[in-house]
Each structure stands twice: as C-alpha cells, then as structure tokens.
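Bumping my old thread because nobody answered last time. Still need a sequence for this structure:
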C-alpha cells in the first residue's frame, strides 16, 4: 500500500510540474526545419528539427557528435528574443555570462547525432497532415531552468495551426 501511494504521489507531482510549466512558462518561438514522415505504427506526425539546433551543431563542431567525444554532452545555449519572441542563436553558454534583458538560456541534449530540445516530433490526428504543412515555428514554454515544452505549431505569420493532440 505504501509503495502504491508513493508511486501515485510521484506521478501526480510530475503531472503538476508539467501543468505548472505550461501555465506559467515564458512563451518563446523556435524556427522549425521540419521533415514530414508518416509512421504506420504511430499514426501521423511531423518529425521536428530546429534551425537553432543546426546553429548549435555548427558551433560545437563534429567532435561533439563523435561517440564518446570530449564535447558529447548536454548543454545550454544563449538566445536573443526579438519583438515577436522568436529565439535566435547568440552563443553557446559558458556558464559565466550575465544575460541581457532580451536573452534567455535554453537547455539542449545531444542525442543520436543531433541537438534536441523538448521533443523531436509533433503528433496530430490522422488525416490532418495538411493543417500542419505550413508550420514554420514551434511555440514553447520556457521555465526558470531553461527547459522547454512544446505547446503548438505556427505558420510564417505566427498564426496557430490546429490543436495539439493530447
């Protein structure tokens, strides 16, 4: 009984943390570099790649992605937000810099030869792929630790596309 209660408490705490992150996190947009595969086992989805991730890869260089390479670790990047809250690469975080008012620190992960943020896929209802073909930005919620949660996809003019399937 105690183990079951502990598991329920931990699961509900994790859910509360994500809901708090979604409700209170700062809104930022990351430019997408999407590909559009279809998975027979998972249904329709859009595999996501981020322009910011590509810039981080360039800054880190090829050694970062060699298995067991000295740079093969997770890290943080400093981005600048424009007037529409779109994030642009400024520099890799060295842990020393004080951030300007328009700068934010985002955490990233190096996985399977690429830079990843909150997710690498956006799932949508089968048959609704055309609603998301014009996706150019992902809306994220940023918390104080630099973690991101994907909220929705947006087009070039920052109009929300469809609703996220949960």
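Sorry it took so long. Here it is:
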């Amino acid at each position: 009984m105690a183990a079951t209660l502990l598991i329920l408490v931990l699961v509900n705490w994790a859910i509360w943390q994500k809901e708090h992150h979604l409700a209170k996190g700062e809104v930022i947009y990351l430019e997408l570099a999407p590909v559009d595969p279809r998975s027979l086992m998972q249904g329709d989805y859009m595999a996501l790649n981020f322009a910011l991730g590509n810039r981080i890869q360039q800054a880190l260089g090829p050694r970062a992605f060699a298995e067991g390479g000295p740079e093969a670790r997770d890290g943080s990047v400093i981005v600048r937000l424009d007037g529409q809250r779109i994030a642009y690469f400024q520099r890799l975080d060295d842990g020393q810099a004080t951030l300007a008012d328009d700068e934010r620190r985002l955490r990233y992960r190096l996985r399977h030869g690429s830079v990843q943020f909150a997710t690498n896929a956006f799932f949508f209802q089968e048959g609704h792929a055309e609603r998301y073909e014009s996706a150019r930005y992902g809306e994220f919620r940023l918390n104080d630790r630099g973690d991101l949660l994907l909220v929705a996809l947006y087009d070039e003019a920052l109009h929300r596309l469809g609703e996220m399937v949960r």
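Residues 107 and 145 are 8 Å apart (CA to CA). Let me know if any region looks off to you.
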